[in-house]
Amino acid sequence: MAPFAAVLAYGLVLAMFCSALAVRISAARLGEGVARISVAASALTFALAVALFAWRLGQGGTELYGVGLGLFTLYVDALSTLMAVLVSAVGLVVHVFSVRYMQDDPAYTRFFVLLDAIIGVILLMVLAGDLLTLLLGWHLLGVCLYFLLNHDMRRPAANRYAFWTLFTHRVGDLPLLAAIALIYHAYGTLSLPAVFEAVAAAPDETALLGLPLAETIGFLILLAAFAKSAQFPLHTWLPYTMDGPTPVSALMHAGIVNAGGFLINRFAPVFVETQSVLLLAFAVGLITTIMGSLMMLMQSDIKKALGYSTMGQMGYMVMECGLGAFSLAIYHLIAHGVFKATLFLGSGAIIGNARKDPNIPEGEIYKFMVERKVPYPPLSWVVFAAITITVPLLIVFGAHQLVDEGFLHHQGALILLLFGWITGAQTLFFVYKIGGERPFTVLLYVALSFAAVILTYVIVGHAFDALLYPDPAFREALYRAASVNATTFALVLVLLIVLISAGWLVVFRSEAAQEPLTRRFRELHLRLYALLSREFYVADFYSRLGEQLLTASRRLNAWLRWV
Amino acid sequence: MGGLLGMMLALPFFVLAGLCLPLFPLSIGINRFIQHLPKHAADRLAQPQAKALVLLVLPLLGAMLIGVGSWLAGDGGGWLLNAFAFWGGLTSLLYAFRLLSARDGQIWVGQLYTSALALVWVGVAHDVPPLLPALGLAASLLPLWFLLDGLTQRFGIARTGLYPGLALRMPRFAALFIVAVLVAVAVPFSPAFFAVADLAFGGIGANELLTLVPLSLAWLLWTWAGINLLAGIVFGEPRADLDYVDLDRRDVLMHGGGMVLLALFGLVLVEGIL
């Protein structure tokens, strides 16, 4: 008799595929009632995922289950069960939301078939116990998403952006295929636990052109993750895919883009043996975070702004992995998934309400944004700047100190602390800029909210550490794999802190003197604005390249007479 | 066998195999054959069924010829096979690139067939038995081949962009057509997917770059070309001036059953890999 956990694991993957089939078969008889099947299957999947997660918590350890083939094995561990809970929860919310949202849509049945299929595929991917099943799920995810984004089959724009999505996802499939082929050649197995054991036993294997195997595999895994998680310069598919139905956007931004973070975590036992490849994740994640956040600020379309916000968040998630904080990245992707799904599902109502009543409620933000009236702050800029720079620093430092006294030894933790500080300071600066009649009250609220967020982040982050990577030595090794020379790091960190503090002081001084930097450096500001409004010409470059390749292909075919 | 004489004797066999597992410019022959239209009813070899049979038989013949050639070349024939692998990789990339602009159904299938089968050479050079991957790649094209023939029968020509939006007028046909295109461009669970995996897993041991570069790039270009095909036939605004006749249940069962069989064949290939 199959073990209880195997039944749960296979049950939760199969439930969604069976639902897709049942919806298709019953469509003629039940009409829009097919959604009931889909929602019921989704609820069942969620219940099974929770049961599996609870079972895993109770038992501890990991299990690998198979069906007698080399394919379709499932791996039950903390990461896979936690991801299954997230995926099935987001899936359930999206299903319930879609029942009414998609009502009267001519392709109602097709939508639910594809929605069920994609949830099934994601679950197969996160629970995969062998590399070929992982590749199957990874690959099919892009295919299902292509058809969901193409929901309105008549719209050329939907088709174009769905193509961008599938093509980028396929670009991400190739390094994963290469990594799997290298692993199979080196270790002669595709089973995940066996591969991890083999990597730990022989970490110094060499592969491609004599390069270290772990480093090469890590590099390829990162490339695959970058494509799925919309990292620069493979990000263009994400913000443009708003032609799909809103529930698909929610699913994509709350679930699918997280696949990159999951993949990096899945291969943590490989990354722990690497020397420098995680620096690439840090660099790419950092660039993506900055670019995504900047481009988000440029958008007037709420869904596109959310799209770029996701890009920034995904950059941050990859950056966390690049710093060795693997479990924090998982917490980040779950937290981001929850709030981004809420934002996307609520965006439709916000747009609808704004159409009915475009007036912005009067208040301090109205005065600042619409009337451009900025009350002069009651404090001198020097005092406010000092508060802005020191208060967030004290909060992030204190929160870390409270939970983990040894955090100063981890370079990754210090970098994340730096980002927490910058974020807090930015929020306090906005309080200064917006002015208002009760700046101290607002300041207090912001400081308290910031402290609550940071404290939660740190505490839950540590809980995730204990859940996903219970071995402290392994966690240390992950941080070590992401570290650089200690002296260089200290110098760069001090330099960054000085530069950022000086930057804040300059900004405060210019704001106080009513001479914003954007006015003083107007030419540079306009150029940067133009560059950002064209999104760094990345999408234009790809479009142009695609057209030129098609023209070259046509010419070559004409020259060779199409044979 | 082996030695210089063995290699001299092996060369013609490999060249003949290059006709079956097409290598450019030997590939021109098979592409001409696929594009050849029947001029009269007695022209049986130009009928779609006969062509499909040829598409399936050629890889078998190619695998056999390679087997003989490899035996004749012996252990010292590695450099010769590497040269053919390089040739195969280039042919595959050339045809995959050309596939991007192919709009006619028969040209499309011919170029994909050439690009896919040429990849088998990459595996052959690295001791991957050619028969199963070759069969898997060739068989994966058959559903699309027959559905394109169905389009020719309905509209006089199988060509993208002429009658878009079939999903809205012929939903059964469109659904099968989508699956057939996905199977052809090696999406799981098509045998072509497992054939690509087989070639990658087998070939990488001997030469990583020679194996992975053509395989990866060709696979990527097939996907692009497949999406172009879908965009011009399945998606878009349907024309109002055409008569649309969807597939009946029997045809759906026949095509669907064929695809299920292909998926099962794919699983056989997986067990071969593992």
Task: Name a few traits of the molecule.
heterodimer, A: 563 residues, mainly alpha, 4 domains, two-stranded antiparallel ribbon, 24 helices, 2 strands, 77% helix, globular, B: 274 residues, 13 helices
Short description:
By secondary structure, chain A is mainly alpha-helical. Helices cover 77% and strands 1% of the residues of chain A. By secondary structure, chain B is mainly α.
The sequence of SSEs of chain A as H and E is HHEEHHHHHHHHHHHHHHHHHHHHHH
Strand order of the largest sheet of chain A: 1-2
Structure summary, number of beta strands of chain A = 2
Which structural category do the helix and sheet elements of chain B fall into? mainly alpha
Total count of strands of chain B: 0
SS-based structural class of chain A? Answer: mainly alpha
Q: Spans of chain A of 5+ residues with little confidence (pLDDT < 50)?
A: none
Strand percentage of chain B, roughly?
Answer: under 5%
Radius of gyration of chain B: 19 Å
Taking all residues together, what is the mean pLDDT of chain B? 91
- Count of domain modules of chain B: 1
- Which two protein chains have the largest interface (Cβ within 8 Å of the partner's Cβ), and how many residues from each? A-B, 43 and 51 residues
The chain-level mean pLDDT of chain A equals: 88
- The level of helicity of chain A is over 70%
**Overall 3D shape of chain B:** elongated
